[in-house]
Design a protein that fits this description.
With about 230 residues, the protein is of the alpha/beta class. The chain contains 9 helices and 8 strands. The chain has an 8-stranded parallel sheet with strand order 7-6-5-4-3-2-1-8. Helix 3 links the parallel strand 2 (about 55) and strand 3. It is globular and about 45 Å long. The N and C termini lie close together (about 10 Å).
Length: about 230
């Protein structure tokens, strides 16, 4: 695998090309380095290269990295979080990408000191293996959060199926964008719903073409420590 600076450069070129194809500006897309499977040292290398948005999916991993990296990073919690674990993470993260149920919202409301920017997770593909609300449930769920002053719904998040069929992937991302546009038009004060968290290492270019504002890139960016590359 290529050294980290070259991987970042390749990803940057891919993002710029996808933005050009979609008629978008490069600064409309935020890259989140998914560091959940790499060490604190490797995460620091990523930060040193100028990638400041970091994604973790376990409270333990988040806290271990924050102990070593106390400042300079913007933290995204991208995994499912059990309600009983909310107290461990909610005042440590800048963004939560997996809000999908009222019990979780209630716990955030109870535990958060400041309002938390949240993406509502939508299971667009309808796969049993994926968490999230159905598209049909999403608006009523977001509307039910209007009294939760510690939650700000800034956008929607989804994961595409693991498939080689690019049309299938594109359709999932397109459906989320259309749902985002529909919800944004409601102009809910607690839920601007302007952002889209979608796209990972294997499909982020398609996601950007379909409107992603946040892409979550793991191995393609941070590499694999088993291969010893940095």
């Amino acid at each position: 695998m290529l050294p980290l600076p070259q991987r970042i450069n390749t990803i940057e070129q891919t993002i710029c090309q996808a933005c050009e194809r979609a008629g978008r500006k490069r600064d409309e897309v935020t890259v989140i380095a998914v560091t959940k499977q790499v060490s604190e040292e490797r995460t620091q290398h990523v930060l040193d290269q100028g990638i400041t948005h970091l994604g973790e999916n376990r409270p333990e991993g988040l806290m271990a990295k924050q102990h070593v990296i106390p400042q300079g990073a913007v933290w995204h919690f991208i995994g499912n979080v059990q309600s009983r674990k909310v107290k461990e993470i909610i005042n440590r993260v800048d963004y939560l990408h997996s809000l999908d149920r009222l019990s979780l919202a209630k716990e955030i409301q109870k535990r958060a000191v400041e309002p938390v920017d949240c993406f509502v997770q939508v299971n667009v593909s309808g796969e049993d293996s994926k968490s999230g609300l159905s598209p049909a449930e999403t608006q009523s769920f977001i509307e039910s959060l209007s009294s939760y002053d510690k939650i700000r719904v800034i956008g929607l998040m989804t994961m595409a199926p693991l498939t080689e069929n690019r049309d299938t992937i594109r359709n999932v991302f397109r459906e989320l964008r259309e749902l985002r546009d529909q919800l944004a038009a409601e102009k809910m004060q607690h839920a601007p719903v302007t952002k889209l968290s979608m796209g990972m290492s294997n499909d982020y270019s398609i996601a950007i073409e379909e409107g992603a504002t946040h892409v979550r890139i793991g191995t393609a960016l941070v590499g694999s420590e088993s291969e010893g590359d940095v």
